[in-house]
Give the backbone structure.
Amino acid sequence: MSIVLPGPFLAFAARSPAWATWLDGLPRLVADLLGEWELAPDGPPTHGENAVVLPVRTATGESAALKVVWPHAEAAHEHLVLRAWNGAGAVRLLRADPRRSALLLERADPGHDLHALEVVPACEVVAGLYPRLHRAPLPQLDRLSVHAARWARELAELRGSPLAPRRFVDQAVGLARDFAADPATDAVLVHTDLHYANVLAADREPWLVIDPKPLAGDPAYEVAPLLWNRWEEAVATHDLRGALLERLYAVVDTAGLDEDRVRDWVTVRMLVLVLDGIRTGWARREPARVSAATTIVKAVQR
């Protein structure tokens, strides 16, 4: 069976030789999975930054989605988490082959995500899903406290950088150190990348979560992506701080989170983002993205 993958996804071969090799074998891998799992293509494939998703029909005529992921650490436990959620607020896992980074999922609508709603109601939808997702963490997951301890050390590299005010760097270092020592930092299973594009319309429920990058973590850690995504909409209000805080309050009130803890995690995550930008080089290419990160930190200060 000949599988035509999206050109933009195949262009990711330029990322590295390893990507090029994996993409070269991907059409055969998809064809093998279709045959072994008795699946029939049911529409054109879509893709994200690290996976291709093909709508399919099972041997019994059920609609589903075949997801094949570039093998990387963040995706290693996706199948375990989806199985643990068992469809409670998230797409159901129908079958998995972790060795080949392949998942057969309940089909949702990739063309209809939370960008279809106004931003504050969209935040409320995400926050309403949190209690269903934040259950006891799986023992296989990495712990957020370990990351926090590392960030407490590494964020000190930003001292003296013109890209991050020193007072914010010192604050983030102290917060990360405190979080690393706090047992509540690893209390629940968290998605970690739960933003508007990772919640899709579906038939079984109005909205279902996809694409977890799970940790044993802190519910308050989840909120930051709702602030940095849909950024242009916040800018267009001409009250940037007010727009960002409106999102934060909507999430805190709907989910019953600790507001101060949310503000603190947002500060840490934004400074980690800046550090990543400096280390990987995108901070030089995308200064507006760095500016957005520090603006968010300013907005959440008391």
